[in-house]
Structures are given as C-alpha cells and as structure tokens.
Amino acid sequence: MLTPHSHQITGALFLAGRKSALLADEPRVGKSGAAIMAADLNLEARILVVTTASGRAIWKKAFSDWSTFGRTICVLPGRLTDGPLVAIVSWSGITEANTRAALLARQWDRVILDESHYAKSIETKRTQAAYGNFLNDGQTVDAATALVRKAGERVWPLTGTPMPNAPNDLYPMLRSLRPECLLADTGKGWPDVTKYQTFLHRYCVVRMKKISNFRKIPVVVGGRNLPELRARIGDFMLRRTQQDVGILEPIYDTLPLTVSPAMLREAEKDLDRSAILTAAQEGNTKELEMHLGPLRRITGAIKAKAVVKAVLEEFECGLDKIVLAYWHKEVGDILAEGLSRVGVVGFDGSVDLQNRQKAVEQFSTDPKTHVFLGQIAAAGEAIDLSAAANLLFVETAMQPAQMKQMSLRITNTQQTRQALVRVAALEGSIDEALQTLLMRKWAAIREVLAT
After folding, report:
1. Each residue of 191-204: pLDDT tens digit?
2. Domains and CATH numbers, the chain
3. Could you give the C-alpha distances from 210 to 197, 216, 218, 279, in angstroms and in order?
4. What is the pLDDT of residue 1?
5. Distance between CA atoms of residues 27 and 114, nearest Å
6. CA–CA separation, 298 vs 257, rounded Å?
7. φ/ψ of residue 115, rounded to 5
8. pLDDT single digits (tens) 386-422
C-alpha cells in the first residue's frame, strides 16, 4: 500500500464521515486514494466506481495501491462476482441496457462517481442513469432505476472540475444528493431553488439567443449570487487546490508563432469575426464549431509545422521533455513526423486502454522519449505526465475546463520543477482574441469553488 499524504488522510476522513459528499480537489491532488481509504475506513465491501473509459484501468491499479481489503476487482464489461467486490464501469457503460441491468440487480455499499461532472445535465442518459429522471423541471426525481438508489444514496462524487461551464452544472448532483440545500431559508433571504429553471436563473446570467425568426434559446453567459450558492453547498464539498497541498500552480504564457500575412489571410478569408466573438462570449460551442471548423483545421496544421521548428530549437537549448496537446488527428500526425528524431510517444481517442498506459509509462521512464503527444479529449484526464514540466497547447479546446484538466497532467506532489503551460497562437489571428474571451468563464467558477 502506498503511503498517503496528510491531505489525502484529511480527504478520506471527510468522506468517511458523510453519507454523501463531493470531493472536488484539483486534479493530481489525490482524490482516488482518499476515496478508497475512506471506503476502507467504513468497512464497505461492495463498491461501484463510475469513471471515464480511460480511468477504468487507473482505478483498478488504485485499489491495489491504496486498499488493504481483499475485494475482487471487476472492470466492466465483465462478469460480476459474489462477495466483496469493486465493479468499475465507464460513464457510457451505465447507459447500456445489459450493463445497467446487472448493476441495478445488486445492492452497493458505496457508489463513487469519478469525474462526476460527466453528469451535469438533467437531460442526458448518463445523468439519469446515475441520479434518476428529473420530473416537472426537477420538482421531483424518480430514482427507482438510478444507481444512487442501489446504494441508499451513499455516494461520493469526485471531480476537479465540478462546474465545467457554469453554476447550473452543479444542479443534478445537489438536487439528488443534497436536496435540502435547495430549499428556501427566509432567515438568510434564500428562495427555494428546487426546480431547475429557478436554480438556473438564480445563479446564472442567462441571455436569450435568436436561432431563427421563430425561435430563441437561453444561453448561460456567467454567474450571479455566487457567495449564496457557495454557502448553500456548505460542508457538502471539500476542495483543495494544488497550491494548497504544496503543488506549484503552473505558469501560463503564450507562444507567439509568426507566419506570412498571405497564409493568415488565406486561412481566415471567409470568417465572420463578429459572429465568432459573440459565440465565444456566450459560450456557444456548437456555433463556434460551425464557424471555426474549417479554420481550426487549417490553422492547426499551420501551427503544427511552426511548433515543430520551435520545439526542436528548445531541445537544442536544453529542454528535456515536453507534452504537446492538440485536437485534430492530422495535427498530431504532423507533430509526430516532424519530431520523430527526438523520440515521440502519445495517443489519441483510437488507442485502447492498455496501449495508452504503455505510452504514459514509456514517456515517464525512457530518457530517449522526449515528446508526448496528447489529443486533448483522450489525454486530458486520469494520467500522470509529470515527467515533463513543460506543456504546449498546439491547438485549444472550446471549454476552459478541458484546457485546465489537460494542463494539470504535468503537475503533482512529485513535481519538483515549476510547471510551464503555454498556448501557441498565430500572431494577428482571431485565435488571440478568442483565448481572452474563453478564459473569462474561470472568474465565476473560481468564485463558487473558493474555500
């Protein structure tokens, strides 16, 4: 068994003393170890862990590292055994009929919802599979076929990003596990926010966006009444930042890339700049993708070629290892080919779990492997890339939370160097303006999560 840090022991005691609670420590602080130790403290024999697809293998190893109990570990899909058992399933797995039926056929001592922000919308199947069906705008919750009911609401959500976009992301979890905090408190001047729309408009700035001459939709553009929301959450949540536990916060910077004006004009010639900036300000990722889809591919390829030159120069100046984050597969291919002589490993969404872990281990242990290429959607969670203290976003994600998750892959309690996270941007491009707008969302998120 690994030796826990003092903050992990504190986290374990926090969870063990509560029927349900949110452990919202930042990534790399050690949530999985704390949760497993808490389950041991409570003598919980039958545990269900819901996590990401790539997180299943990591949780299997974590139980070997952190638990002193002799539970059988089953990674689903697979056959569940009798007796003390840890069942580990992906978020997509709990929506599959056969897997869900097998899980609902058993009683669990504990359900651990890892990366619990995956259940942030009351309308998605995975949220309903975990928490139940939200009826009458959330006035009632039908949890008859919900996984939380099979553990008697003994549930520990774990996530470093409980609000990936805005305060309304918290609603399904609070409505299911902490419904009393949504009730009115006349002494404090708090209204009843049990219904979703009431919660939404109490704690979010919502604007109506015109879709057509006949239709408008609400778009969340910020937060409001955030100290009140934090007070409602109260001791249901424990959150420690990396800095709180002695992990240095990365330094964030940009890496300007200069290309010819002709290349820039060719890439951006058909763009509606006003529409793009408006969509970014409103957090409308679908509209951003519609406008920026072709541009992102073109500029991604342009930036990848420029990054290859810049990174090779940095290796000549003494750089040891670096993580390069990207979005499009063709960008990863350009980087892999251009940097092959300095030793490249990594993975995208097409690589299976076993080979993903092999790539991480090779990068961590092989002195001749200097570059890790991580597709943001595939490599942004549950892996340790702290063999490098330098990460560069060749391409960016539309959601700041994804950027944050990816950037923290290079930080943990074993990182002895100051981590540096940079974003590559084409000078004079609309990409520079977009980064400023996309990062504004963090202000509201930090205010709610501040301890």
Report:
1. 999 999 999 999 99
2. 6-238 (3.40.50.10810), 251-449 (3.40.50.300)
3. 19, 4, 9, 12
4. 72
5. 12
6. 14
7. 50, 55
8. 999 999 999 988 777 788 888 889 987 667 788 888 8
